């Protein structure tokens, strides 16, 4: 096409057209992801959610992630945790704080905790968690688990152990794409943003249970700072939780193939993790739920930040 000066102009290369085409591309990708999500929901419809049975209208939920910063928060602000509804994750039961705080909720989202075929390290941790739950739990507690874990050996052994435990299974089908479709499926608990981290499932559980405010602690998410390539050329990470005496190195495995992960696999999963938090924040706002990240150390940029030292907060 010719411009006003008579010269041939490729409008696809002009800035306005470039951004217009970029918007069209993103919209097409969003529609495509929505269609894929609908297909996932259709094929995984049997994975029903129990979270519709749990309601906590008008209450606050505090999610205790296991990042190293939680240690100082627990020591410096003990009064904050008194009388709170607490949700703990993963290996929290192995800490002394489990019996001290007596959380009302717990979540295990990794399929490896329920699948018989998993990497040895996860199988070992699974057994430790099971034995700790049985020996330590003397108060009523609800455990959120992936729907795929219903009827698993882990589920059966805990359910028959005699401890006051209730299981609530949730649908972790990945839902992405057009916002209206995403939120429609989220509200009906037919899926969630890519659950690359247990905190994603914990937040979606809190939203599904109708908590009006969700506070996050211990969500350092600083794993990238401990990455290195070992002498064998494989990716390893320095794991560090609030209950660990010191960081320890662990080989990184791909969550689906169970093979050693590559660096680009790892960073792609980090991308999906942090993007999921922004999708959750958008969904929370649509439901008038406030999510506050009060972790003293964190790399999550999706939620409003507050300091425990300023509690009680004036929330915007």
Short summary:
This protein has 316 residues and is an alpha/beta fold. It contains 8 helices and 11 strands. The mean pLDDT is 88.
Helix content: 25-40%
Q: How far apart lie the N and C ends? A: 52 Å
Count the strands? 11
Q: Please give the count of helices.
A: 8
Query: Structural class, from helix and strand content?
Result: alpha/beta
- Any idea how many domains? 2
Sequence of secondary-structure elements:
HEHEHEHEHEHHEEEEHEE
Describe the overall structure.
With 316 residues, the protein is α/β, with parallel strands linked by helices. It folds into 2 domains: 43 residues; 264 residues, no CATH class. An 8-stranded parallel β-sheet has the order 5-4-3-2-1-6-10-11, with helices on both faces. Helix 3 links the parallel strand 2 and strand 3. Helix 7 runs parallel beside helix 8. It is globular and about 65 Å long. The model has no long low-confidence stretch (mean pLDDT 88).
């Amino acid at each position: 096409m010719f411009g006003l000066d008579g010269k041939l102009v490729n409008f696809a290369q002009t800035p306005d057209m470039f951004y217009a085409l970029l918007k069209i591309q993103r919209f097409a990708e969003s529609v495509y992801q929505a269609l894929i999500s609908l297909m996932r929901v259709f094929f995984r419809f049997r994975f029903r959610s129990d979270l519709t049975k749990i309601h906590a209208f008008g209450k606050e939920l505090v999610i205790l992630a296991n990042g190293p910063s939680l240690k100082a928060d627990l020591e410096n602000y003990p009064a904050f945790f008194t009388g709170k509804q607490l949700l703990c994750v993963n290996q929290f039961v192995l800490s002394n704080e489990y019996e001290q705080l007596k959380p009302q909720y717990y979540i295990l989202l990794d399929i490896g905790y329920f699948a018989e075929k998993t990497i040895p390290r996860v199988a070992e941790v699974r057994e430790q968690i099971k034995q700790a739950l049985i020996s330590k739990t003397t108060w009523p507690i609800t455990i959120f688990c992936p729907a795929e874990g219903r009827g698993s050996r882990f589920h059966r052994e805990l359910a028959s152990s005699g401890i006051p435990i209730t299981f609530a299974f949730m649908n972790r089908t990945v839902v992405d794409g057009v916002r209206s479709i995403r939120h429609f499926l989220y509200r009906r608990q037919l899926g969630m943003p890519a659950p690359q981290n247990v905190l994603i499932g914990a937040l979606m559980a809190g939203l599904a249970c109708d908590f009006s405010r969700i506070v996050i602690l211990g969500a350092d998410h600083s794993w990238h700072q401990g990455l290195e390539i070992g002498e064998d050329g494989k990716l390893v990470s320095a794991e560090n939780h609030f209950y660990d005496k010191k960081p320890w190195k662990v080989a990184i495995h791909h969550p689906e193939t169970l093979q050693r992960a590559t660096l680009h696999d790892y960073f792609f999963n980090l991308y999906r993790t942090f993007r999921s938090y922004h999708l959750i924040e958008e969904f929370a706002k649509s439901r008038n739920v406030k999510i506050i990240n009060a972790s003293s150390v964190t790399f999550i940029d999706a939620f409003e930040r507050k300091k425990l030292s300023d509690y009680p907060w004036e929330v915007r």
